[in-house]
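P.,

For your records, the input lines for the assembly:
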Amino acid sequence: MDQVSRLSDELNQKLEYLWKSAGAWPEYQQVMRLALSAGRSDKALPGERFSHLESLPGLCCQAAGGAPDWADDLTLAWLLYYAAAHLMDSVQDNDDPGLWWVEQGAKVALSAASGLYFSATTALNNLAHHKIVSPMFAEIVRDFSETLLVMGSGQYADLIRPAITLEQYWEQAGSKSGAFFSLACRTGARLATAESRRLEAYASYGRHLGLLVQITDDLEDVSPPKDTGVHGQRRPFARSLPVIYALEVFPSQQAKQLQGCLQDAPLNAEAAQQALDLVDQSGAAEYVTVVIEQHKSQALQALAHANPYPPAGEALAALVREI
Amino acid sequence: MTLAQVVYQMSTDTDFASQLFSAPESTLDKRGLKLSKEELAFILTAHHRGEQEKMRIVALAARDQARWIR
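Structure tokens returned:
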């Protein structure tokens, strides 16, 4: 059994036990299961697309000298917070609802997200009962709480800013995806080492990896939806990195033209194509390629500074190279 | 956001792009732009790749998504 399969089985068992022992009602457990499995088919959890990222905290723990299973509760908490935050974001951003909550509406999605948050907190609390990692419990809980507050700040800024500059884009991406992946790596490694220099290196590795994940997610929004009957562009395209870049560098006339196309793009294939053509004219593909290469290089440099033990260190490097 | 400005100028101004290739530092200085050596190296590599085949954002998205699917 490979490490990802072992982890998935272990985490599923832990989660089912957690819900049962906490007394969560069967129908509430079911809606949280639905939220998680729906998430795995898109990107709420590092699912099909990110299955190898599920092992991130465990790999960092192992690379810092620990055993991979020391990080199981921490990993479960991290994945549940990820799923909960993604679901809340979907509701706040008015994204298309998932099939499991389209009928009953956002109130059901928010209830499931709350359940996932409480489940994550309970999973994190289980670290206190682990023989080896319990001394780090308070420090790790504080790190999670502080990081989640930073992420909440980034999400709030995203909600209240009608338009963002390229600088604000990077600030928000850093406070959300960057901070969250940094947390996974820093706390995973913290289970095995207290060396601040190495912990900072793991945090930096995670931050760059998180930004790479964000860029890849944004690229997903570039491709028009398939098999949905929608002929235009996805709504999140208008706030994706290639578009933010183009609006930043274009002279005002071209920027206005792009904004006009973006307004019509969700329902109009012609406007969607014009928007893509303008984005191409701006050199967005070159810019995105450059920043991907830059973050990959910075992630690998940070990893080298962490002096990771093999084979986990090699697996962490492979995660970056595969992007 | 100097990096973005330099990429844009390279994409829209072929003279600037060829000057940047032949004399990177003085070309940036003349326009009051500053890049780290690392940023410059990434830009020149990406632009060189893009010259062989014009990069399109949809193609880049398809390529990067395919790499991540397991």
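Two observations worth noting. Chain A has one domain: 3-321. Confidence is low (pLDDT under 50) at residues 43-50 of chain A.

Regards
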